[in-house]
Design brief:
The structure is a single chain. About 40% of the residues lie in helices and about 15% in strands. Strands 2-3-4-5-6-8-11-12 form an eight-stranded parallel barrel, surrounded by four helices. It has 15 helices and 15 strands. About 55% of the residues are buried. It has a single domain, classed as Glycosidases (TIM Barrel). α8 packs antiparallel against α9 and α13 packs parallel to α14. The protein binds beta-D-fucopyranose. Beta-D-fucopyranose binds next to loops. Beta-D-fucopyranose (FCB) binds next to loops.
């Protein structure tokens, strides 16, 4: 081991025997087969087929064709030695219009996936919502409509009854921050709405959906599953003028808007104040907070990079993007006075800064805020400009990225953080939302012409880490 304590490159790090190493994907990003076996359209089908929304006009129509290559992909996971696989279930495969009759063929697909994982000794971590809302529900208002939360609970109950004897961990939502603020605020994600009030309504209805779904799952699941939600909590640093105020505002919108109701049982009063000109939050009805505030066994943490903010000086500054594709609106309702600064490099292909110290800081801050809450990293990884050379992909930068972030996680554990596992984003190169297929996050390369899978050097490296439980 080196004595360097700043660069996160040390070796000889060991992970405990019960630490769960796995990898993650999401339905719309990998499955394809969008018209098959009764699947209905989702908001991402509509959005990606709308000209100008996704780079190159890419869509998830075929993606990694995972729907047809399930067994091959399961074998790949086994070959890597994954201990867990985090996948998401496409709601429009289960209920094509988001309510009403169950589409048995859709349920069967996920039944085969879960059985295939278990047969290979891989723990299934199932996310109920990774952004593919049935289009019919969006037509009725989507997440701005309270009824969507009740429809989600019904869907959770259907899936829970079908798979609730076999799934190891249930995750209600993936990154509700993105669903609410990118979907209804900035418009960079489906459904592409740009309305501050819609974004805040969506925040609450997603929180409510989480609470209602947990109640349903706990009612119908028969095994001893863990329950969780995955948040992309922001690590926010100060960049000068008015930084404490700028951090407070963004922390309220990005982090405490979710951890407040879910883990503490209340919306932060400063969030309500900051957004008072947009809404009086009357959509929060009596009893909602009690429903949302339920114990979870594990909090899922997705981490990629950090943000730096200060108050905007209108005379000199322009409001810079915050790492997400620019679209018409702002993802920060009520925070027009906050400026996001360029981050110091190095950067990944997304333009996101590489900052393993941010992961350590985030985990420690969660331990301080929620001392008894076990945590799991449900996504971490990086896009790089991968090339196939002689049948290999030498993605040294990704290996380095993962190495540093594993060390960061390990350091947090050494300081008392109860971290249960690490799901690398992503198993496969895939449809990266508004960036289409231009960003490769996989540890496995996908040739989109032939659908051939090639293990990148990072996959081989990860496989060794899992096998030895060490970074050497
Ligand atoms: C997260 C998403 C995931 C993937 C990564 C890069 O925000 O949850 O689907 O796109 O970013």
């Amino acid at each position: 081991m080196t004595s360097d304590t700043t660069d996160y490159r040390e070796t000889g790090i060991e992970f405990p025997a019960n630490f769960v190493f796995g990898s993650a994907t999401a339905s719309y990003q990998i499955e394809g087969a969008v018209h098959e076996d009764g699947r209905g359209p989702s908001i991402w089908d509509t959005f990606s087929h709308t000209p100008g929304r996704v780079v190159n006009g890419d869509t998830g129509d075929v993606a990694d064709d995972h729907y047809h290559r399930l067994d091959e992909d399961l074998d790949l996971m086994k070959r890597l030695g994954l201990q867990a696989y985090r996948f998401s279930i496409a709601w429009p495969r289960i209920q094509p219009t988001g309510s009403g009759p169950v589409n048995q063929a859709g349920l069967d697909f996920y039944g085969r996936l879960v059985d295939g994982l278990l047969a290979r000794g891989i723990a299934p971590i199932a996310t109920l919502y990774h952004w593919d809302l049935p289009q019919a529900l969006e037509d009725a208002g989507g997440w701005t409509n309270r009824d969507t939360a009740y429809r989600f609970a019904e869907y959770a109950s259907i899936v829970g009854r079908a798979l609730g004897d076999r799934v190891a961990t249930w995750t209600t939502l993936n990154e509700p921050w993105c669903s609410a603020y990118l979907g209804y605020g900035s418009g960079a994600h489906a459904p592409g709405v740009t309305s501050p009030v819609a974004a805040l309504r969506a925040v609450h209805h997603l929180n409510l959906a989480h609470g209602l779904a947990l109640t349903e799952l706990r009612r119908v699941v028969t095994n001893d599953a863990d329950y969780s939600v995955t948040l992309n909590l922001h690590v926010i640093r100060g960049g000068g003028r008015g930084e404490d105020e700028a951090i407070r505002q963004i922390d309220a919108l990005a982090n405490r808007a979710f951890t407040g109701p879910m883990l503490l049982g209340a919306y932060p009063p400063d969030l309500l104040d900051d957004t008072a000109a947009i809404t009086d939050w009357a959509f929060v009805q009596p009893g909602d907070l009690e429903l949302i505030h339920q114990p979870i066994d594990v909090l899922g943490v997705n981490y990629y990079s950090t943000a730096t903010v200060r108050l905007w000086d209108r005379s000199t500054a322009r409001q810079t993007a915050d790492g997400h594709k620019a679209a018409g609106g702002s993802p920060w309702p009520g925070a027009d006075n906050v400026e996001f600064l360029e981050q110091p490099g190095p950067y990944t292909e997304m333009g996101w800064n590489i900052a393993p110290d941010g992961l350590e800081e985030l985990l420690l801050s969660l331990k301080d805020q929620f001392p008894n809450q076990p945590l799991m990293i449900t996504e971490n990884g990086a896009a790089f400009d991968d090339r196939v050379e002689d049948g290999r992909v030498h993605d040294a930068k990704r290996v380095d990225y993962l190495h540093r972030h594993f060390v960061a996680a390990h350091r947090a554990m050494a300081q008392g953080v109860d971290l249960r596992g690490y799901q690398v984003w992503s198993l496969l190169d895939n449809f990266e939302w508004a960036y289409g297929y231009t960003k490769r996050f996989g540890i496995v390369y996908v040739d989109y012409e032939t659908q051939e899978r090639i293990l990148k050097d990072s996959a081989l490296w990860y496989s060794e880490v899992i096998g030895s439980r060490r970074i050497s």
